[in-house]
C-alpha cells in the first residue's frame, strides 16, 4: 500500500468514479491509491494483475483497440460510467540507435501506447460525461514532448507531443460541455520502470545505482533540485487537478520535473 507524506482529506472524492490506466505500478499506482484514500471509487487496468489492488481491475493491453474496448465495456457495465479518467499508461520499449534504429513496429507501438490508448478511452467515456455535463480527463505526457531525446525515445517523444496537442484541442471542444481536460508532463520520476532502468544501467556500466542515477540526470542536462521526482508528488498534483479545487484549470499542461526543462 502506498504511503503519502501529507494528510489526505478522506472524503474529497467521495461519490466520484475514477479510472486510472496503468494503476498497478509507478505513478499510476500512486495516483490510484491517492484518490482511493480520498474516498473515490476506483478502477484500473494493466496487462498483468497486481497482488493487491483497491477497486475494480481489468486486465487488458491498452495498445490495442480490442483492449480499450474491453476496458470501456467493463467499466460502464460495472460502474455505470466514469467521472474522472486518468490516462497514465505510456512508455517506450524501442531499441537504442537513434532515428534510424526505429522500425515501423517501434513507431506503431509508441503511437498506440502513448497516444491512441488515450484517444480511444476518451472516445469511449466522453459520451457519458457529455450526457451528465460533468467529467474530468487527465493525460500523462512527458517533458520529452518539448525536450526530445533521440537515442532510444524519439518515437515516444513524438507520441507525447501529439498527446499534449490532442489534449489541448480536446479541452477547447469539451470545456463548454462541462468537461475539464488537462495534462501533466513529468520529468524523471523514480517509478518502478525508472528504478529498473537505473539497476540495469548500473550492472551494464559496472557502477553503483547512485552513479547510474546521476548519469541519467546528467543525460537530461541535470535536475536543479538535485533528485528525480517521486510518484507520490505526481499523485498529489493529479489529485489537485482532478479535484473541485481546480475547477477553472482547463486546457493546461503542468510540468513536474524539478526544473529540468531549461527554458520558459
Ligand atoms: N517515470 C518517468 O520518469 C516518466 C517521465 C515522464 C513521463 N512518464 C510517463 O508517466 C506515465 C507512467 O509512467 P511510469 O514510469 O509510472 O510507468 P511504470 O512504472 O512502467 O508503470 C506502467 C503501468 O502501465 C501498465 N502498462 C504498461 N503498458 C501497458 C499496456 N500496453 N497495456 C496496459 N497497461 C500497460 C503497467 O502494467 P503492466 O506492465 O502489467 O501492463 C503499469 O501498471 C507514462 O505515460 C510515462 O510515459 C514517466
From TrEMBL:
InterPro entries: NAD(P)-bd_dom_sf (IPR036291), Sc_DH/Rdtase_CS (IPR020904), SDR_fam (IPR002347). GO terms for molecular function: oxidoreductase activity, acting on the CH-OH group of donors, NAD or NADP as acceptor. This is Short-chain dehydrogenase. PROSITE patterns: ADH_SHORT. It comes from the Bacteria. Keywords: Oxidoreductase. It holds the Pfam family adh_short_C2. Belongs to the short-chain dehydrogenases/reductases (SDR) family.
